[in-house]
Each structure stands twice: as C-alpha cells, then as structure tokens.
Give the backbone structure.
Amino acid sequence: MQGRILRGSLVVSVDDPVCVDGGLVITPHGVVSASGPWEEVAARAGPTLPVVDLRPNWIVPGMIDIHVHLTLPGDGTPAYRYYLDHTPEFLLLTAQRNAVAALRAGVTTLRDCGGPARVVVGLRDAIRHGLVRGPRLFLSGPPMTITGGHMHYMGGEVDSADSVRAFSRGLLRQGVDFLKMVASGGGTPGAERMLTTFTVEELRAAREEARRFGAHLAVHASNLCATRQVVEAGVDTLEHAILTTPEKSNNFDAGLAERMARDGVIVSPTLSPMLGTIRKLEAEKAEGTLTPEDAATLDSMSRRTEAKVKNCARLLGMGVPIASTTDAGWRINHFGDYADCLELLVDAGVPSSEVFRSATQVPARALNQGDVLGQLRPGAWADAVVLRGNPLEDIRAVREVIDVYLGGKECREVT
C-alpha cells in the first residue's frame, strides 16, 4: 500500500484538541506517522504523498465493540438452536457476513465473546492474511461454564479450578486472544439467571492462566451476587453487570461500584440486545396485534433496558470505566447497529464525548491495545472512520458513515 495523507476535520482522540482542518499521515504499513493541524502535518510530510481530501467531513478513530457473537445470526433464532442446526462451515459464513456489516458501520475492531474456536480463529487469521476483508478480531473461543450452564452447547463445560486451568491452556494453545467465563445463568434454557456458578477460586484460576500467557479475562455476570464474586476475583472486564437480586429487583450497590472504580474493572454492559425485540413488539402494539403474553414481554424488556442504562450512567459517573457494547448476534440484534448502544447512554444524560470514549479508548484499553487502537496518534494503527459530523458534539453522527479505513486501506464497500 502506498502512503497517503487524509485531510478533513480531525478527532485524534477524545483527549486531544479537535482540528477543524486536520491531517492524518499514513505509512505504507498502515500506521499513523503524524496527525494534527493540516499546515503542521503537511509541512512535515512533504509534497510527495498523495492527499485524500475528505473535507468538510470528520475523520475519527474507528470504533470498537468488545462484546459480540460473530457466529450467531442476530435475527431472534435461539443461540443453542442455531449451533445445533448448522455446520461449522455455515457458522463461518455467518461470522464473515456479520464482521463485514460491523466494518461498514464504522466498527473496526470486534471482540467475540463466545464461538467455536476453529471457526472464529480461522476467520481472524483469514482477515489478517488478506484472504477476506473484515475488522480486527479478538476471540475467546467457547466460554467456560459449569456442566449444563449458560452457553454449555459451545463445549466449554468445566467444574473445578484444575479443569479451568486445563481448559484455559487448551484454548490458548488453539490461538484465542482472551478467556471468557460464565459466572451465572443466562438465556440458555435451564440456566437460571439468578444462579451464581463459579467460585472465586475458579475465577482466579482462569485469571492467572490468562495473565500467564499475556491474555485477559472477561466474565459474564447476570445477577448482583455473581457480579460481586467477579469483582472479588479481580477480573479484567465484567460483562453485562446486571445488578439484580434473587427477588428480581434492581439493586445498585454503591460500595461495589466504588471498588470497581478503584480496581479499574472495565464494564462491558451490552446495553442494546433487547432493542430489536422491543421495536418489533412496539410495531405490533401500534398495529393492534400484540398478544397479552407479548405485552408482558415488552413491558419487562423495556424496564430491564431502562434500569441497565441508568445503572451504567451511574457507574460512569462514579468513575467506573465503561466500554459500550451490543451483544450483537444475540436475540434480534444486528451487527450494523452499534450506534444504538451509544445513543442509549446519551439519552441517559452522558455527554457525547464520554460516550465516544466508551466506543474507542476504553475498549482499546480493555484489549490491552490502548497505544495502537481507539485513537489516531503517531504509532497507532490507521483505523479511521469518516463521518458527516463530529461525534464529540453529537454521538448520532456515527450513523452517517462516509468511509472506513482499516490499517490505512479504504474498505467501506467491502463485500
């Protein structure tokens, strides 16, 4: 690839001054070598590099969604049914389609939180070698769960600290980038959400194995008791952070939030997985075709989503780092709809600039990639999105994607 300069209004990072007329110098290897005001960047680069003039549009860092399921369809099909009904080859094609949809929407990095290791590792490596186009991928393979636990059909059943260590080492040998555990029940039939599964000792066994091999640990927790155990174990990212007691009441634990902030636990709240179903049921309600059972589902999902968003905004206000995530693939939840989870936070009163941080710099840090992803400073990968507006002023600007650059290569029209 030939080096180039992108010219336009520029957001280097949430923490850097905005350049109304800025420049981004990209090396032939897809790395940013200079970024900032146009006159300074142009003088440093010299007259030989070609200039891509994107004015009056905005050049911003590529967004990062660190909780998705690439091998799931996002059309409402139950996850366990989709896995049982389809071959690994079919799941691979599902994953590639989803990866491309995310990239077109300006999400240049995805972290897959549960899928067949050979399938998702194969896709990641094919993208890295240029066989197919797609975003950067970080993968867990099958999540570890107790026998019969949530997502057990993916093949990650473990029931002791020793089996956690053995399974972790096997996954890391297969080439996964991080480990995931399921510390409570979830949406799998028979896996009660209020059940807390792994012990602190078992969670710490996975954390130690992850760090031994330079990886990190993400843990699913769908109730308050499990969330407390996950924080006690000292994990890296907390998935969902649903603060619900056995009585099914929402119970915000301020002391727990303070500890999360102090320990630097990054919360991946998956704010938008129910929005697709909510919109579908609202349309049926408007048409007068909503059944009583579906009316109860609509009410429950609306209340649960509202509570989760409010809790997330409160956590953010207390200094807990938040990475905006979607759980794309699960329920009716498409890969091109990353903007949904960002708009929910803005509607809850979080400033657009902080929401954009939760889509870029915080998830980059969760991946241990803060120096090269989530910002456009010299030395970072040239993963950039071209938008019509400035997302630091209005996060809804992320819906109007003009172009996408991954490692400096234009890829908006990938197929």
User: Anything to note?
Assistant: The chain has 13 helices and 14 strands.
